[in-house]
Amino acid sequence: MFIYRFRQLIRSRLLWGFFVIIIAFAFVAAGSCYKTPEGSIVGKINGKKITRDAYNQVSGAVLRMSGRGMDSNLPVRELERRTWEHLAAMQIAAENGLTAQESEVRDEILGDRMFQGPNGFDVGRYRLILRDARLTEALYERLIAQQVLMTKVGALMESATWVSPMELDDEIAAMTDVFTVQTMTFSNRFVNTDMPVSDEEHKAFYETNQESFRFPDRVSVRYITIPLSNYLARVTVPEDTLLDFYDANMNRFQTTDTNNVVSVKPFEDVRDEIFAEIQLEEARDYAETNLMFALFGRRTGATAEITLEAIAEQEEVEIKTSPLFSQSEFLFWTSDSRAFANAAFDLEPDSVDTRFGVVGGLNEISVIELLQESPAHIPPFEEVVEDVKVRKQEQARADAFDSYIKEVRTDITKLMEDGKTFEESARETAQNVSTSLTYTVSEMQMRPFENSYSIAYGAMTLKKGDLSEAIPLPSDQAMLIYVLDREQGSALNAEMMRAQIRSGMMRRRGGTLFGDWLKWNLGQQRFEPASAYAFSDVEEDEDIDAETL
After folding, report:
1. Is 141 exposed, middle or buried (0-12, 13-18, 19+ CB in 10 A)?
2. Using CA atoms, how far apart are residues 121 and 531, in angstroms rounded to an integer?
3. Please, are residues 179 and 461 in contact by the beta-carbon 8 Å criterion?
4. What is the pTM of this model?
5. pLDDT in tens, 250-260
6. Interatomic CA distance for residues 433 and 426, integer angstroms
């Protein structure tokens, strides 16, 4: 309880203001003799050291550019590879005078929807979101600056792409031409058929697809889960805290009446809702603080070993055991799968500091202890034989369905070559044909129809009189598409869409080129990670710190 009270005390703004002044003077006094400790160096690029802070900031920018914001389930290995690629690219950009301007960073932040309130950019919301993400404004601005810089580098790659006039005309035609088609839909008659597959075929399937059976690094843990409701009675929430939350989140409590007039609900009407939310957060802090103290704070002079059994008995909960799981796997037994998995992979049974992990969830808190480690490996055939049988059976059914459609298509094609129409050929092969559909891809969003996008995809490269290959559909179905007619679309629409389509083609091509260039560029640099990594080579000195980047 004392630890929790201390945490409440240090939240005092006045006390923190005093601490900030003291700490600032301490840093100024120590700044001249400070040297980056070697343990914070994560690697070198062209002899320049990369600090842990610089690396973390760039990885944050990578997460945002990958569409994952400030939180991520991006596999650790993939994030690590992309971060080093971006660090190498930023070094090349800096050498060539490419930078992110303050105005560009400001515009990026002001335009972010995440920070918008009813009247545009909401500075209170901005600060609250950063605080919840444990980011300072300065650190977040550097993160955005790195994102802006890499966007510029990507734009340079995009500008280097070339789209030929013929390719552009074909794409415009596919979007604006008027198609008239008929379709023939097939249901997979083999979906529940027990296909004959020999043991030799099972083994051959395994040998051909061994890599797809690979298990990643996995762990299993022993854990206890404690409901946060157990701690609600032990925390207090001052009225000032409720009012501060209300002031900072007024946009959450807006209401619109029948005349479309927006107003904010009075504090009294939402007080209980705010209280419940903050009380739960305080309970989470209380639980985490006291569990951490119970696990790690009493080591000095302790006579009895700290065990999960002792904590479980103290909290009156049972110990559970998880199956093996990977770091990117969804874990059904916790409300925060990512945090639980990350904590589990940080556990080290022989280390006093990392033997246990404490993981806060939505309505619970867990204490975990490593039980088993399973390194990445390809299991032998005998261990996965049942999975092999299931997957080979699915492949056999899919192959049978595909062969059936190809046979029908071959028969229909021969009949049409003999002078019969598509509908006549379909009747002779006992198939049903849809009524005629007329559309343009550019107008399809305004007038969609059943399987419209699959039909557009399957027909866009076909000419009048062509019959498509099998086009897969949902629910174990497929279709053939016959183009009855294809006429040139509106020249005005084509010209209006030309710039947009060309830009889209360049963006798609430039995006692929950018990813390839990032890999190539890192390979050209002298790169030496501090720990084992997929790349190698490097030397020399010269620091790069977070400010430089």
Report:
1. middle
2. 42
3. no
4. 0.56
5. 888 888 888 88
6. 7
